[in-house]
Amino acid sequence: MKLFEEKTMKTENIYNGSVVQLQVDDVTLPNGKASKREIIKHPGAVSVIPLTKDNKIIFVEQYRKPLEKSLIEIPAGKMERGESPVVTAVRELEEETGYTTKDLSFVTSFYTSPGFADELLYIYITDQLEALETPVKGDHDEFVKLLELTLDEAKQYVEEERIHDAKTNYAILYLHAMGLN
């Protein structure tokens, strides 16, 4: 057994939903003892840092039921089965903002909550936005409001916890490090 590896002895599928699956694994720990792991399986997600020609960042504000409040975030969404991260990025950008792009650059990817979920989130950036002539219909249960903020305004929203999620905070730190004015 590799250092720290936990060997799965049994998996019980608890729930299969449209966004996540929940399973409970019985595992053998590196010291030989048994334990349980509650695991959320997720198909992955993609987010986009959309920059306007005047270096404003386009955000979406939407209600997040688990938090019982609205957050301001960069556009993002779940990958569909068999869909590449780039295709998801363009789709989510179009659905949530009414813009498209032919020029995406990969920034990074990271696991969002590796203690209990396998979700891998990809971040892309574009400063080549084109307004769609005909808006793309988004998800029937998704309601968003667009905001265009300067980097300084976004930093203020972080201070106020109106921006309070990992992907958007990462995006703001990235833009700060890149010297966005």
Automatic annotation (TrEMBL):
It is an enzyme of class 3 (hydrolase). Its cofactor is Mg(2+). GO terms for molecular function: ADP-ribose diphosphatase activity. SUPFAM superfamilies: Nudix. Its EC number is 3.6.1.13. Gene3D superfamilies: Nucleoside Triphosphate Pyrophosphohydrolase. Keywords: Hydrolase. Residues 41-171 form the Nudix hydrolase domain. It holds the Pfam family NUDIX. This is ADP-ribose pyrophosphatase. The lineage of its organism: Bacteria, Bacillati, Bacillota, Bacilli, Bacillales.
